[in-house]
Amino acid sequence: MAELAGKINISRVLNNSFGVITRHPVIYLGLSFLIIGIPNALLQTAQGNFTTGADGLNVSASYSSQGFGFIALMLLSILLQATLIVATLNDLGGKPLSLAECFTRALKKLLPLIGLGIIMALGIGFGMMLLIVPGIILYLMWVVATPVMMAENRGIIDSLKRSAELTSGSKRMIFVLLLVFFALAFVFGLFVAFVGSISTIFLAIVTLVSNTITGALQGAGVASIYVDLRTVKEGADTSALADIFA
Predict the structure, then answer these.
(1) Per the domain annotation, does 214 fall within a domain?
(2) DSSP the chain
(3) Beta partners for 50?
(4) Among 198, 108, 197, 120, which Cα is nearest to 157's?
(5) Segments in the chain below pLDDT 50
(6) Phi then psi for 52, rounded to 5 degrees?
(7) pLDDT value, residue 196
(8) Residue 57, in any domain of the structure
(9) Distance between the two ends of the chain, CA-based, in angstroms?
(10) Among residues 133, 226, 217, 101, which one has the least CA distance to residue 174?
(11) How far apart are CA 152 and CA 160, in angstroms?
């Protein structure tokens, strides 16, 4: 039965997010390392973004570069998130994970996922221009659009509508949850900055680790939010959700 509150449980989402990663570190961290960590580090190094000097530490943010490298990293990020979403749904549904199957299903959806990402970026970006708050609201509305597309085989517009439906009444809790993730990332970022002030080599290594962990958490986190919303709003069993990929 769905919970009366019909809202996500933050502790359960966090447990599921970190749980799937710790149960399958090779898949989550290994795949994130190969698809996001290494390419990101190589691009940053090639552009001289890991620098230190008299003016102090200078590190570019991920995906800040322009041109082909930016596009390639964005495509890889989309592919990674979709792959890990499928993996998370299968794991939470008690099904064995097959990396080849998860990757294949994500690859088949790549073009719709790109279209979804473009529309979300345009909508949220425009909302941010309108005093920021509308952009935040749109982001909270559409946060599970990607797992909706992957799990329910919906089109771009239907995925956005479905995400808005699932997140209705839970935006505040989702916002708090995202703040928790942001706080964790901020603390780790301070550690990266400290290490970077000691050695450029250490900075490159820690940034590589940071990008890897962030990539894994993004996929596992958004899928866990989706599963929890389905559970509390519709009483959907996780095994039933995983049957979608049977």
Answers:
(1) yes
(2) ---TT----HHHHHHHHHHHHHHSHHHHHHHHIIIIIHHHHHHHHHTT-EE-STT--EEPPTT---THHHHHHHHHHHHHHHHHHHHHHHHHTTPPP-HHHHHHHHHHTHHHHHHHHHHHHHHHHHHHHTTSHHHHHHHHHHTTHHHHHHHH---HHHHHHHHHHHHTTTHHHHHHHHHHHHHHHHHHHHHHHHHHHH-HHHHHHHHHHHHHHHHHHHHHHHHHHHHHHHHHHH---HHHHHGGG-
(3) 59
(4) 120
(5) 1-4, 50-66, 246
(6) -135, 160
(7) 64
(8) no
(9) 24
(10) 226
(11) 12
Any domain includes 5 = no
pLDDT for res 54 = 39
Reference 78, options 155, 147, 152, 154; nearest CA is: 147
Task: Quote the CA–CA distance of 190 and 201 in Å, as a whole number.
Answer: 17
pLDDT at 49: 52
What's residue 44's pLDDT? 63
pTM value is 0.82
Distance CA(178)–CA(17), nearest Å, equals 12
pLDDT number for residue 174 = 93
Q: Is residue 55 part of a domain?
A: no
51 DSSP β-pair partners = 58
Do 202 and 35 form a contact (C-beta atoms < 8 A)? Answer: no
- Burial status of residue 27 (CB atoms within 10 A of its CB: 0-12, 13-18, 19 or more): buried
- Please give the residue range of the domain that contains residue 68: 10-46+62-245
